[in-house]
Structure formats: C-alpha cells, structure tokens
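Summary of Year 1 activities. Much of the first year was spent building the evaluation harness for sequence design. The harness presents a backbone, in tokenized form, and records the residue chosen at every position. We chose the following record to illustrate the format because it has been used consistently in internal testing since the harness was completed.
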C-alpha cells in the first residue's frame, strides 16, 4: 500500500551506504518500529514507551480526578505518595505499602528485611525470575541474598520442587505471571499448594507481582484474595497500568516500616515524586478496571492469530500459551528473527496496521519469538481483523525471507 517514495525512504534506512555495527542496525530498527507504532492507524496496544513526551505529559491533564491538586506537593514520601501507598495497601488487602522508584529496589529491600527476620538469606525462585535474568546479580552483589533456583523449565515451579529443594531457604519468591516463558500463571490450586509447601519449609512467601494486576481473570479471584496468600507483594505502576514508573511493596506494617528505612539507605526516598504518583493513581483509576477485558480479548486475538497463521500455510507456528493467562502472550515462527522483524515493520509502514509491536528475538537460529500485548486499542479488533492482518503480514514475511535467502516456509 506504500508508494514509491515510501519504499525509497525505507530502503535507504534499511541499507545505509557504509558498514554499520550490530548495535547500530538494531538501533535503527528499533527507531523504525517506534515510528511505525506512532503512525499506525491500527495497533493492539500503545505503551508509554511508544509515545512522545508531550503525549505522556497529557496523561496528567486528568490528575485532578484522582487527587486534590491544590494540596501541597509531596516531600520525601508524604502527601500524594502516602495517598498512593494507602490505596495500594487497600487494593491488595495488606496492612501497609511503601512506594519505591523501581521494582528492583523494592524486591531487594523486601527480601533483605525477610532475611533478617528468618535468619536465612537464601531465596528460592525460578531460573527465569526477573532478579536472575535482568538485575545483574543484584541480590548477591548488593543485598547479601543468595538465590537458589528451583527449576529452569519453561513453567511455574511445582510444590514438589519447593518441598524437595536441597537446602533451607528463608523466602520463596514467585513471579506472577512468569514473564520469560510466556506470561504464565499456575492454577489457583497449584498456587495454594506452592504457598503451603513453602510454609512447610518455615519460609515466607513473596510475590513478584509486577503484573499481578492482570491475574484476576485466570485465577477467578479478586486481587486481595490472591495477594492474601503471600507475606509480601511487589506491584509495578507502569507495566500494566501505564504509569510513568514506580512500584510498591505491600505487607505487614512492621515490614513496611523497616522497608522504608532501607529505601532511604538505598537512595529511594526521592525529594518529590508527584508526577509519577499521580500517573499511578490514574492507572489504578482507569486501567485497572479495564484489565480483565484486555485479558479476555487477548484470548480472542490469540485464537485468531493461530487460525490466521495456520491458514497462511506456514510450515509451523505457535501461539503460547494457546489460551493466554494474561493480556500478553508469545508468538513463535520458524524464520530468522531479523527477517520476521523486518516483515513486521514493513507491514506497519505500508499498511498502517501494526500487528507485532515488540522486538523479535532468536532463542535458537531459525526461530523467532515475540510478545503480543492487547490493551484498549486491541478491543476494537475482531477475530476477522486479526486474521486479515496475519495474511497481510505473511505476504511480506515470505518476501523478506526470499530476499534473505533463508526462507523456511513454502
């Protein structure tokens, strides 16, 4: 659908005159994907990362709906920050909550405090848990904690693995959902068994609930009942709720008071945080009630994606999990990741429809995987819309694979 000028511009971006490094090539592709996301007429989700500063600041135009803007600004955690903490504690059914600038800090502080209470710095967790994959060894390097991996299988740990762990641990940390293998949640029965197994080991239970907000449909339970299984819970304000950033740690009031002391020591007691706190309150007001509809529609989108990929005649494809546990899930294709990424961006540039907005990764050569996120814009897509978009994408995928000489499909 793009004209000749569009194709010429795209070609010059794809094929710079001189050699470029791998990082530069990826950077250019990331920028093209971001521009395509901003200009696309149809998307399944729009995240804060894909918007301009002006667009993000516009979020605060409605801030007076959630807090009295004639109140004094916050200073070192009072005012609007304290109001946000009270709101989160109530939603999660906990005695208290503490605001943190990052989840990395919140979880280190939580587990450090629990280690002092249990006398055991060992944290049992999944090999794909966020601290193990994305935090540069922060548990051991910064907080004196020692992670022990329960499993590296692409699923949640089992109660048997908790019971059979070879050494004592002070805390069991469960990431809900477990993002790396596909935003996976256990069943409610499996979750209660996991918690019971930890109790049998005299361990506390901490939920890495960065995206816990999205879990209520799968568990068919309210947030406070889910959070009530754990001794402490961390939640994020930007991953699901579209806030500017920030996190909260919720749990017993004595733990939270100690956590605030450690927050200060870690440099997390920031002078003023009202923009982030207001964006979090807006997220709780606006996005939190919508999340169940996103999860339910993600199941419609996932089924239509699978149908569309099968109808396109690809040799193999996978939507995982087949029935999404949250509003995010994975798509796997038997092509080189660069080839698929280029096809996805071209589709958006030329058709105005962005089906795959996130990066494609290569777990092994010849396979590509991405995450699909369904939010408010995605509610406008019917199953037929998804199947049509898949067919359009596959046309370009085959073109790109042919150019690259690495075509796997027919």
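For this record, the design step produced the sequence shown next.
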């Amino acid at each position: 659908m793009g004209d000749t000028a569009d194709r010429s511009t795209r070609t010059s971006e794809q094929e710079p005159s001189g050699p470029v490094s791998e990082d530069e090539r990826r950077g250019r592709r990331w920028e093209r994907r971001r521009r395509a996301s901003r200009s696309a007429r149809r998307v399944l989700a729009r995240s804060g990362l894909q918007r301009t500063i002006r667009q993000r600041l516009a979020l605060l135009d409605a801030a007076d709906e959630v807090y009295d803007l004639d109140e004094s600004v916050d200073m070192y955690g009072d005012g609007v920050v304290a109001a946000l903490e009270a709101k989160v504690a109530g939603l999660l059914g906990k005695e208290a909550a503490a605001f943190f600038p990052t989840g990395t800090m919140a979880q280190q502080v939580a587990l450090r405090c629990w280690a002092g209470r249990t006398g055991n710095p060992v944290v049992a967790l999944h090999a794909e848990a966020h601290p193990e994959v994305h935090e540069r060894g922060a548990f051991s390097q910064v907080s004196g904690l020692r992670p022990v991996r329960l499993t590296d299988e692409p699923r949640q740990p089992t109660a048997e693995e908790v019971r059979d762990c070879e050494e004592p641990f002070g805390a069991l940390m469960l990431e809900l959902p477990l993002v790396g293998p596909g935003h996976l949640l256990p069943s409610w029965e499996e979750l209660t068994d996991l918690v019971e197994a930890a109790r049998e080991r005299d361990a506390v239970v901490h939920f890495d609930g960065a995206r816990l907000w999205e879990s209520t449909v799968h568990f068919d339970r309210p947030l406070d009942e889910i959070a009530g299984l754990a001794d402490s819970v961390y939640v994020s304000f930007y991953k699901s709720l579209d806030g500017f950033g920030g996190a909260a740690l919720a749990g017993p009031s004595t733990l939270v008071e100690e956590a605030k002391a450690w927050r200060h020591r870690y440099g997390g007691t920031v002078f003023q945080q009202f923009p982030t706190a207001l964006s979090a309150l807006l997220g709780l007001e606006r996005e939190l009630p919508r999340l169940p509809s996103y999860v339910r529609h993600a199941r419609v989108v996932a089924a239509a994606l699978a149908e569309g990929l099968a109808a396109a005649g690809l040799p193999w494809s996978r939507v995982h999990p087949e029935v999404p546990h949250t509003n995010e899930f994975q798509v796997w294709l038997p092509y080189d990741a660069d080839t698929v990424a280029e096809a996805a961006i071209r589709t958006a540039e030329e058709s105005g429809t962005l089906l795959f907005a996130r990066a494609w990764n290569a777990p092994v050569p010849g396979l590509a995987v991405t995450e699909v996120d369904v939010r408010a814009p995605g509610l406008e897509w019917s199953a037929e819309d998804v199947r049509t978009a898949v067919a359009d994408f596959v046309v370009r995928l085959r073109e790109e694979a042919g150019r690259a000489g690495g075509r796997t499909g027919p």
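Residues 1-16, 406-410 have pLDDT under 50 and may be disordered. Quantitative recovery figures across the full test set are reported in Table 2.
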